[in-house]
Amino acid sequence: MKNQLKTVLLLGILSALLVGIGSALGGIAPYAALALALLLNVGAYFFSDKLVLKMHGAREVSREEQPTLHRMVEELSQAAGLPKPRVFLMEDPQPNAFATGRNPEKGVVAVTRGLMELLDARELRGVIAHELAHIKNRDILLSTIAATVAAAVTYLAHAAGWLSAMAGGQQDDEEGPSPLQTLALALVAPIAATLIQLGISRSREYLADKTGAQISGDPEALASALDKLQRGAEQHPTAAQPATASLFIVSPFAGTERILALFSTHPRTEDRVRRLLALSRPGLDREARWSRPGVHGLTP
Question: Strands, E, within the chain: which ranges?
Fold first, then answer.
C-alpha cells in the first residue's frame, strides 16, 4: 500500500509539472497542458499495453508453440491468485522480459527469444514469477503512465526551448516568460520528470523481486536469473525504446549502468541479488556469497 500511494503521488507530481510548464508559457498553454495531461493518463490506461507490445514486435504464442512456458505461467498464476495472463514472445537476442496490462484480467507476460535460450527451467520460473508480481502489485499500468507523462513533459520543455530561441529578444515582457526563463524550464523540467519516473521504477523492481520470490518460493532462482540477464543485456545490444526501459526486468541498456547509475531505470543488479539471497538465507553473510560470477555457484 505504501508503494502504491507513493506511485500515485509521483504521478500527480508529473502531471502537475506538465501543467506548470504550460502555465509558464502563458496564453492558452496552461489549458492545453491540462488537457494533454488528462489525455495522456486516460490514453495510457486503455492503450498502453497494445502500444508497448507493438513497439517491441511482440507476438502472442499458443500453448502448442510454447507448452513449457504456458505451463509455468499457468502454475505460477494459480500460486499468485491471478488469472492466467496472455503469453507473448519477442524475437530479440537480448535476454529480457516484461509484463503489461491495465489490470490482472488484461495481464500480459512477454519474454524474448534470448531469455528462453539463456535460462534454465528454474531460473525461467523465477523470472515469470517476477513479472506476475508486477501484475499482482498493479504497478505496470502506473509505471507506463509515468513514462508517458514524463516523456510529454520532456518534449514540451524542449519545444519551449526552441520557441524561446526562435523568439529571441522580441518577446513582450508582459506576455509569458522571458527567453531565459523558458530556457531554464527546458533544461530543468526533463531532468525532474526523469528523476520522478526513475523513483517509481526502482521501488517497483525491489517490490516485484520480493513478491516474485514469495510466489515461486525460490528467491535464489530469481537471483541467479538476474545475474545472467544482466550479463546478457551487456553483451547483446537492443533496439528497445528508452521510454519503455523501466518495464523490463533488467535495464535493456545495462552496459551504461555503472557510469550513469543515478539515471538508471533499475536498481543495481548486485543490490537486488543481495536482497533476494537475504530472503533465502537470512543468517548467512551476504557479502561473502556475492561475487561475480558467483551467483552461478548457488546451491539449491
Answer: 59-60, 86-90, 97-100, 108-112
Q: Which of 109, 86, 106, 102 is nearest to 46 (CA)?
A: 102
Distance separating alpha carbons of residues 258 and 42, to the nearest angstrom: 36
One-letter amino acid at 126 equals G
Are 206 and 267 within 8 A, CB to CB? yes
pTM of the model: 0.76
The residues assigned a catalytic role are 131
pLDDT in tens, 14-27: 777 777 777 766 66
Place of cell 504550460: 22
Q: What is the pLDDT of residue 297?
A: 40
CA distances (Å), origin 265, targets 8, 163, 189, 260: 18, 30, 18, 10
Q: What is the distance between the alpha carbons of residues 158 and 156, in angstroms, rounded to a whole number? A: 5
- Residue 102, pLDDT > 70, answer yes
pLDDT of residue 220: 96
d(C-alpha 260, C-alpha 48), whole Å: 27
Buried b (16+ CB within 10 A) or exposed e, 153-182: bbebbeebbeebeeeeeebeeeebbebeeb
Domain assignments of the chain as residue spans, ordered by start: 2-297
| 3-state SS, residue 184 | helix
* The pLDDT of residue 223 is above 80: yes
Per-residue pLDDT at 290: 37
Tell me what the mean pLDDT of segment 237-258 comes to: 73
How open is the CA angle 80-81-87, to the nearest 5 degrees?
Answer: 70
Q: Residue 100 class from Cβ within 10 Å (0-12 exposed, 13-18 middle, 19+ buried)?
A: buried
